Amino acid sequence: MSEENEEVRQIPPNSGRLEVDLDSCHQCGLCELFCSLYHDGVCSPSVSRISLLRNPFTGDSLVETCRQCAYPDCYFVCPVGAIVIDEKTGARVIVEENCIACGKCAQACPFNSGKTIIKHDQEKKSYFKCHLCYGREIGPVCVEACPWNALKFVPRKEEQMEVKEK
């Protein structure tokens, strides 16, 4: 067994994931604004850890955020260990102060083709992504901010139950 496979087995499970009900979403963007305000003190979708992608021609929308992968490629490619996995919650977190902005995490993420999941902050010279509001006792701020309850945090235990039921 390779050393890399040994490391994969020791990764704590994620704490859960965000679930989006696009039928309930009104594309208002409050999730993006509250996220950026909570994390950076500004109302700016460009620094939000959740991205609402709107198609102005069809009216369709898509919400993109980190999926908190079970075996995160971004974690394995980071050359300086700036991506950590919290032992207690399993949250996958980029420690921005430790990030050298090499971009390997953004390139390694299989869901980041539109650069809407792992983003680069030009001013801070680091990358950032959703970490489910790591350290916030009442969960992700975007879930709390959504007036239509289109966002839901699904804890890992519920997520496993859903898989077993299917």
Mean of the pLDDT scores? 89
Quickly give the CATH architecture: 2-Layer Sandwich
User: Into how many domains do the coordinates divide?
Assistant: 1
Tell me the structural class: alpha+beta
| Euclidean distance between termini CA atoms | 32 Å
Helix content: 25-40%
Task: List key phrases describing it.
166 residues, alpha+beta, Alpha-Beta Plaits, 6 helices, 8 strands, globular, disordered N terminus, disordered C terminus
Task: Tell me about this structure.
It is a single chain. With 166 residues, the chain is an alpha+beta fold. It has one domain (3-165): 2-Layer Sandwich (Alpha-Beta Plaits), CATH 3.30.70.20. Helix content is 26%, strand content 18%. It has six helices and eight strands. The strands form four sheets. Strands 1-8 form a two-stranded antiparallel sheet. The chain is globular, with a radius of gyration of 16 Å. The relative contact order is 0.22. The model is unreliable at 1-9 and 158-166 (pLDDT under 50).
SSE topology:
Blueprint: H1 3-9, E1 16-20, H2 30-40, E2 51-54, E3 61-64, H3 73-77, E4 83-85, E5 92-94, H4 104-108, E6 119-121, E7 126-128, H5 141-145, E8 151-155, H6 156-165
Antiparallel strand pairs: 1-8, 2-3, 4-5, 6-7
